[in-house]
Amino acid sequence: MICKTRNLSISQQGMFNWHSNFGLFFETSLVAILSYVPFLNLVLGTRPIAFPHFAVPSFSFYCVIMAYDELRKIYLRNGMEKSANGRTKYTGWVARNTYY
């Protein structure tokens, strides 16, 4: 989700790619099923982990990464200017001196 755009926020871009959305939810549900279904724990030789040990670290890491990226994009958008020929000029964090 972070790599979808360079300077648009996730609220501006939207989540319209249904293949990507399916992949996110499928991956999360697969990990939960492999961790918490007793039959699969017996077959795979694993044991279920406590839910706080599963959810708290991953969710807090997700929140930090998303907050960092949204703040980075805000900082980047504040440093952009439109030039006379209609191109966007980056004067902020990620600056390129050449136009293509």
Describe this structure in words.
The protein is mainly α. The protein has 4 helices and 2 strands. The protein has helices spanning 10-13, 18-36, 38-44, 51-78; strands at 80-82, 88-90. A hairpin with a 5-residue loop joins strand 1 (80-82) and strand 2 (88-90). The chain starts with 9 loop residues before the first helix and ends in a 10-residue tail after the last strand. 1% of the residues are buried. The mean pLDDT is 79.
Topology summary:
Elements: H1 10-13, H2 18-36, H3 38-44, H4 51-78, E1 80-82, E2 88-90
Strand content: 5-15%
Q: Give, in spatial order, the strands making up the sheet with the most strands.
A: 1-2
Number of domains as seen in the coordinates = 2
**Poorly predicted regions:** none
Offer a quick outline of the entry:
The protein has 100 residues and is mainly α.
How would you describe this structure in keywords?
100 residues; single chain; 4 helices; mainly alpha; 2 strands
